[in-house]
Amino acid sequence: MSESRHVAIIGAGAIGVVSAIEALREGHRVTLIDAGEPGGEQAASYGNAGWLSSHSVIPPAEPGLWKKVPGYLMDPLGPLAIRWSYLPKALPWLIRYLLSGWTEARVEKTAFALRDLLKDAPLLHKKLAEEAGVPELVERNGVMHVFPSRGNFDSNLGWRLRKKVGVEWLELNADEMRQREPDLHPRYTFGVVVEEAGRCRDPGAYVAALAQHALASGAKLVHVRATGLKLSGNKLVAVLTETGEIACDAAVVSAGARSKQLTASVGDPLPLETERGYHVMIENPESGPRSSMMASDVSMVVNWTDKGLRAAGTVEIAGLEAAPNWKRAEILRNNLFSMFPKLPKDIPPSRIKTWFGHRPSMPDGLPCIGHARASRDIVYAFGHGHVGLVGSARTGRLVAQLLSGKQPEIPLAPFAPTRFL
Length: 421
Hints:
Blueprint: E1 6-10, H1 14-25, E2 29-33, H2 44-47, E3 51-52, H3 69-74, E4 80-82, H4 87-100, H5 104-118, H6 121-131, E5 138-139, E6 143-147, H7 150-154, H8 157-164, E7 170-172, H9 174-180, E8 190-194, E9 198-200, H10 203-216, E10 220-222, E11 226-232, E12 235-241, E13 244-247, E14 250-253, H11 260-264, E15 273-282, E16 293-295, E17 300-305, E18 308-317, H12 327-339, E19 352-361, E20 368-371, E21 378-382, H13 388-403
Parallel strand pairs: 1-2, 1-14, 2-10, 4-18, 6-16, 14-21
Antiparallel strand pairs: 3-9, 5-9, 6-8, 7-8, 11-12, 12-13, 15-18, 15-19, 16-17, 17-18, 20-21
Pfam family, one: DAO
Domain FAD dependent oxidoreductase: 6-402
Protein name: D-amino-acid dehydrogenase
């Protein structure tokens, strides 16, 4: 099955555009289908924190998380909030979510699988950025995690498992942190630097550049919303859209949080949910970190972008249609000012930008990468949760390998869509 195929890729986010580049490299003809502009503000890729964190191998659910669920239901502004009105619909997903992290052994199994997917991601992205003519947008200069104390680090299951899967880091005491980050609040007394990791200086611009690279390499882009997939027996014949059919003989479902309807159209009811995320960005701030960092006490990433200082984090379970709760963005802003006391408190509102979007998430913290049950002409590549941007580089390669009938470069059993069916 190495012949050239006409591949329709549904979704022009990070996963979709990298899949397009890699499918073109394999000799396939590619049509990208997306109602929005690649890298536009409507896309999850646009609002990403900007970390290319090859060490992000720990799923959101860890042992004992179930004890915190009542608090999440009571606190609409906490790091993980669940809207009461959406709880009945989200409950099956939430139960699977909690069970996936019920034991340390389950979390460890997930960590090993994610390490395979994310290892060397900053290098892969650097090569893609160079190909797309935007090498300056990807930097491989490490990221920092900061903690109020050494004890907060030592007691963290995630770091024990990162060591087990081969992640290495440099440890910093309070004085060493002050030398590197003089503007950081003194409540942080311990830090680690993961030197293998990288960052993206403008996720939206990066995805847009990758899309342009795919188009320059021969891909087509159709601005329309896909609604389903059309089969004849076990053969794919078209992607259904709001304006008609797009004939093709292979398809990739990489439509992010809106992939669920598409998989259901061919008999795969997969438990995809949106983890709604927010970011706040200060244009031209007078203070801030010298490096990209995550603060453990507020579960927030702070990253310099070409547009300003971005703070991103928190999760809200409330579905695709509910209006944003902008107080969650205010919490991020307040945390940013708390972390960096030298930031002026009178920054004009016009220089503070907020964003809201949808992370596509499977309940076990692992994306779906593999064939549809109904047809091997259909490849699923979605559900990356918090690792969509960093995971897109290898996911696109895996998609191309599946389309061409080649042996995938990593084991795909942990990511098989059939694990839920």
